[in-house]
Amino acid sequence: WSSNFRDLNASITRMATLAPGGRIDLKTVHTEIERLNKIWYHKKENRTHHLEDIHIIPKDLDPFDQIQLSYAVNICKSSNSMAEAGRKLYAFSRKAKSTPNDSDRLRKYLQKFGISWEDIKNSV
Hints:
By secondary structure, this protein is an all-alpha fold. Helices cover 61% and strands 0% of the residues.
């Protein structure tokens, strides 16, 4: 298991919910394993992005902040607009807001590190 206990609990709950007749069978387990492998493989693939390739990320950040910022920058690079990038990055938390402004949230987050949308788009 390459995740945390909460994810294990969620996985078991998902299998119990989706299992035919409320009983977890082998097919349900194999389906869940396939789903998890796709997620874990995708995460592993994303970790291969080297921070050195992204020249706009400050080098004097804690490793956690570097990884988080690197992820956000990569989402921005693959998006056509700041609004699209914001929707991708804040997909879950935006549901709790009455008036979500994902572009503004993203702009403020990047600004914390001295980075602008233009900086990211010019670095492609």
